[in-house]
Amino acid sequence: MAVEEKSILQFAAINIGSNAVRLLISNVFETPTEPIFKKAELFRLPVRLGDNSFIDGKISPEKTDKLLMAMRAYKELLGIYNPLTYRVCATSAMREATNSQDVIDRIYKETQLNVEIIDGKTEADIIYSNHVAENLDKNNSYLYIDVGGGSTEVSLFSKNKIVASRSFRIGTIRLLYNSVSKEYWNEFKDWVKDTTKGCKPIVAIGSGGNINKLFKMTGRKDNNYISYGKLKQMSDLLNTYTMDERIQLMDLNPDRADVIIPASKIYLTVMKIANIEKIYIPQIGLSDGMVRLLYEDYKRNQQ
Fold first, then answer.
1. What angle do CA 80, 49, 51 make, to 5 degrees?
2. Under CATH, which architecture does the 5-120 domain have?
3. What value does the mean pLDDT take over residues 222-227?
4. Residue 15 CB contacts under 8 Å (≥ 6 apart), including other chains
5. Is the pLDDT of residue 4 over 50?
6. Is the model's pLDDT at 254 over the cut of 70?
């Protein structure tokens, strides 16, 4: 039975990340029981703001120009799709750049798009708003792990409540440039160990472009889980290849072929410390959470 057109709502989210800038166009189908969220389009542009922000502490003129081109393109796409509403969020690279306000002002001047720089806690809260764990086995505890270019958000969910949540300035681009100190890396590991102590069994929930890609590379189609052993096997294989071989043999884009190695290191480190045997990959993340919150705000305003 076809869904009536009037029951389909559309929202959009732009995520200005440290590695890529994404635009998600999402349809929401309202049913008598619950809304169904379905991706209509997902656009990704490898601007990689973290190359500047984490090394020089600012966004370079060249990166600013690239970002502006991306935002102008996305503004045009928003005009074509005409969603009910949209939200634009920027994460780690923008929140740490000393000239981020200047960049935001230019974006608004040229596109009239309001960019909201969100802190690590807000980023974790938006990701959590997808409520993935609520649809899984209530007997387990769940550890959300979202790995980005500049930060990693980790949240422990147990008995339908968030027990602990923290954002770490540890991301794929930072590890790529060796800009994470040994002391801070150990602090990260200690927090995971202390936070998950006594919460067994734990299942990881992974989000981010790299874990989605790793899942696809395993060829799994029966469910959305990867075991620790399978993930480590894939990571070990990738580490035997050069950058060019990852692109040619593993069919990875250049901007994915380098960061997928440090990404797998972060996921495996957390899983090993917390004694987690498998990771669930729902293939949703920050942009999906932004859309869900937009929908909830829209429904509240309709009342």
1. 150
2. 2-Layer Sandwich (3.30)
3. 85
4. 21, 22, 24, 89, 91, 286, 287, 290
5. no
6. yes
